[in-house]
Amino acid sequence: MQRSGARSTSVSWWRDRKTIKRSDVGVADRHGLLTLIPTIDDVLDEYASALGNDIVAYRHHVYRVVNLCAAMSVGVGRIEQFAVAGVFHDLGIWTDRTFDYIAPSIDLARRYLVARRREDWIPDISTTIAEHHKITRSTAAPSALVEAFRRADWVDVTGGLRGFGIPRCFIARLFATWPDAGFHRRLVQLAVRRLRTHPLHPLPMVKF
């Protein structure tokens, strides 16, 4: 039943996606994919030196995840919040050079929101970043960002093996528009490095 519900939501958005306007969230292509979201690109420009050669891979990951969030959510009114959560959710890996990156990523997002007087977004976005690698369903309120974001990240990280009802053609289009560019290979490298240094706690970001 849950899988069917996820498919219904994504199909509903699939029909309505062409109503997105540039002034609302950015620029959508002829398929309705959000291909230019200023919040994402502005933050990535700011942290370009920290991201180094991984900036393209991370940018593509963020765009895929945010588009998946839009596909899993009813309407597009919260895309800006998904964009903030998306661009910061793994950023601590590079800014703090650690695979235990949840706390640094939350701190970066919090500072960004305070600077823009969006403190009201901090609790929801902080929870979203904190639980985006949660294996089981989030217990947060249905109105929260976290469950759609958690599913979107799992879809991307597994290459669609965990699909949550999203059409495979949509996932394929995402990866065609924003290729992997070495993102998953980088995650494997970081995981192996973490395993060597912290064999008893190799995946600190994962929650059950």
Please characterize this protein's 3D structure:
The chain is mostly helical and 208 residues long. It has one domain (2-197). The chain has twelve helices and two strands. The protein has helices spanning 2-16, 22-25, 38-46, 48-51, 55-72, 79-88, 92-95, 102-115, 122-130, 146-157, 168-177, 183-197; strands spanning 27-28, 34-36. Strands 1-2 form a two-stranded antiparallel ribbon. Strand 1 and strand 2 (34-36) form a beta hairpin. Helix 8 (102-115) runs antiparallel to helix 9. The longest helix is centred in the N-terminal third of the chain and has 18 residues, at 55-72.
* Structural class estimated from helices and strands: mainly alpha
Q: Report low-confidence residues grouped into runs of 5 or more.
A: 1-23
Number of individual domains = 1
Oligomer: single chain
Q: Approximately how much beta-strand content do the residues carry? A: under 5%
Could you provide a short overview of the structure?
This protein is 60% helix and 2% strand. With 208 residues, it is mostly helical. A hairpin with a 5-residue loop joins strand 1 and strand 2.
What topology does this entry show?
Blueprint: H1 2-16, H2 22-25, E1 27-28, E2 34-36, H3 38-46, H4 48-51, H5 55-72, H6 79-88, H7 92-95, H8 102-115, H9 122-130, H10 146-157, H11 168-177, H12 183-197
Helix pairs in contact: 3-6, 5-6, 5-10, 6-9, 8-9, 9-10
